[in-house]
Amino acid sequence: MADNHLTLYKLIILFMLDRVDFPLTTSQLSQFILDKGYTNYFNFQQAVSELEDAGFIHSEQIRNTTQYHLNSEGKEALDLFEYKISSAIKDDVYHYFEEEQIHLRNEVEVYATFYPAKRDEYMVQCTILERGETMLDIKINVPSIDQATMICDCWQDKSNDIYEYLVGQLWGSGPSNSNDSSSAS
């Protein structure tokens, strides 16, 4: 009977990953499964681990967050066994995504990380994705790990303002000035 439950948890994870066009983090997946009381954290972790070991999902580590993607093998398994997920569970997933979609997307599509660059310097990479495509990717060299951490911590909240500022500055000075200079000659 325990194997049937573990299979259901795996199918829920595959179903969730199949219903979004961006990766989901460990905390996003666990938040849904644990908050709904489907299982405990240990069973959840076992399900994720077995899905990854079987090649149904793959993970990507970004700073201190693990993001999960559905592989084609996982999609095939879901197609074969989706009928084992009750309509009530599917409704719970849809409701969760309706309430959290923008927050979920922002959490995985707006991120920052850093790594050692030169001696006693760090490269901070701040990224904004939209539907998997890079909209903005900034790299900044800073002299301390504290500054790198601070920039990464602030990026989530300030990324939209920074993106709008950069685009405004570039569009504001780019196309209109080139039209003005060409009409003057």
Structural topology:
Blueprint: H1 2-18, E1 24-25, H2 26-35, H3 41-53, E2 57-62, E3 65-70, H4 72-81, H5 87-109, E4 110-116, E5 122-130, E6 133-142, H6 145-173, H7 175-184
Strand order, sheet with most strands: 1-3-2
Q: Determine and state the CATH class of the largest domain.
A: Mainly Alpha
Q: List the helices and strands in order.
A: HEHHEEHHEEEHH
N- to C-terminal distance: 81 Å
* Strand segment count: 6
* Average pLDDT for all residues: 85
**Chain oligomer state:** single chain
For the structure shown, list the relevant keywords.
3-stranded antiparallel β-sheet; single chain; 185 residues; alpha+beta; Arc Repressor Mutant, subunit A; 61% helix; elongated
